[in-house]
Design goal:
10-stranded parallel sheet; binds S-adenosylmethionine; binds 6-(5-methyl-2-OXO-imidazolidin-4-yl)-hexanoic acid; binds iron/sulfur cluster
């Protein structure tokens, strides 16, 4: 008897429309509805993980995990008011975070070399800026990008908003990817950030794409959003064409002194659902298990790998908060039977 869409279980029915050929990036869908995504996020956990695993195996058969190291090259005193962020100047009185000036190019490159020696293949540099301003500081960042590329590492920066010209200069310097997160749904955005709009973020992503660079764009769960907000974030990402090459999924790190300090910690299984759904929607992307990983057990992290995560931030520190121990991470990857991804820079 042939199956009709109605006779399939809810996940199979939803996915019956999605082509699955490995590497068939042009066959991946960019027309997901929020309704379909909510249905995925709410589906029985093991069915969801099964489906994500299936897609993950087809598109990432090699079982590799990308190790990306992160460095804050300019910390604190940011004019934006992102409620989750310890680097916002709006909350400094309560967070007590010291502001720092831009690090020297040589210091940054020596950190990149250390990261490379420890096994990282991507080096990500973050600045607590609202936007890039042309001048000495941007020139120094361009030199950092060139230096990281000369080390044969992938280079990623996150510097806030960018003009088309600035994006072109970063591309010229050899930047692999630009990170610019949408963080949450368009509807919930103004509850979290009031100093810029969702459209501002989308405009910068457009400029990055026009300059020919990869996009690294994801969000945060655990900020008080609904499942519909999570779906709308994922829908915004999955309807970009092409999809972002990297999708960082962060669990809120509730930093004391920020307005979100008292948020209930997110259930790790919610993170698994988010990872699995991102994997199903964006089969070829790197889905990065990002902030909040240090509060996960080894088992929860392995469940995230099973659900399609294939990248982590690797190094003792994220930007201002602690990250997992590097030896523990290498042991975890080996124990899960996975392999560290070699550099494709
Ligand atoms: N200022 C730039 C910007 O906002 O694009 C770059 C740096 S910003 C710290 C990079 C990303 O880190 C944010 O978009 C957010 O997704 C994430 N992030 C910051 N604080 C976080 C926290 N407490 N928990 C989880 N993710 C966080
Ligand atoms: C991303 O999505 N998460 C990283 C990176 N991209 C820049 C930053 C996480 C920051 C967590 C809080 C902190 O350490 O300050
Ligand atoms: Fe500034 Fe970025 Fe933090 Fe927002 S997330 S306050 S823009 S550093």
């Amino acid at each position: 008897m042939s199956e009709t869409l109605e006779s399939l279980n809810p996940i199979d029915a939803l996915l019956a429309k999605s082509p699955r050929e490995p590497g068939a990036a042009s066959g991946t869908r960019h027309d997901w509805s929020a309704f379909e995504i909510v249905a995925l996020l709410n589906s029985p956990l093991l069915d969801l993980v099964d489906e994500a695993r299936d897609i993950h195996r087809q598109f990432h058969a090699d079982g590799q995990v990308q190790l990306a190291s992160l460095l804050s090259i300019k910390t604190g005193a940011c004019p934006e008011d992102c409620k989750y962020c310890p680097q916002s100047a709006h909350y400094t009185k309560k967070t007590g975070l010291e502001r720092e000036t831009l690090l020297d190019v040589d210091d940054v490159l020596s950190k990149a070399r250390i990261a490379k020696d420890a096994g990282a293949t991507r080096f990500c540099m973050g600045a607590a800026w609202r936007e890039v301003k042309d001048g000495e500081a941007f020139d120094a960042v361009l030199a950092m990008v060139r230096g990281v590329r000369d080390l044969d590492m992938e280079a990623c920066v996150t510097l806030g908003m960018l003009s088309e010209e600035q994006a072109a200069r970063l591309a010229d310097a050899g930047l692999t990817a630009y990170n610019h997160n949408l963080d949450t749904s368009p509807e919930f955005y103004s509850e979290i950030i009031t100093t810029r709009t969702y459209q501002d973020r989308l405009d910068t992503l457009d400029n990055v794409r026009s300059a020919g660079m990869q996009i690294c764009c994801g969000g945060i769960i655990g900020m008080g959003e609904t499942v519909e907000d999570r779906a709308r974030l994922l829908q915004t990402l999955a309807t970009l064409d092409p999809h972002p090459e990297s999708v960082p999924i962060n669990a809120l790190v509730p930093v004391p002194g920020t307005p979100l300090e008292d948020q209930t910690p997110v259930d790790p299984l919610e993170l698994v659902r988010m990872v699995a759904t991102a994997r199903i929607l964006m089969p070829t992307s790197f889905v990065r298990l990002s902030a909040g990983r240090s509060s996960l057990t080894r088992e929860a992290q392995i469940l995230c790998f099973l659900a399609g995560a294939n990248s982590i931030f690797y190094g003792d520190k994220l930007l201002t908060t602690e990250n997992n121990d590097v030896d523990d991470d290498l042991a975890l990857i080996a124990d899960a039977g996975l392999r560290v991804k070699a550099c494709s820079a």
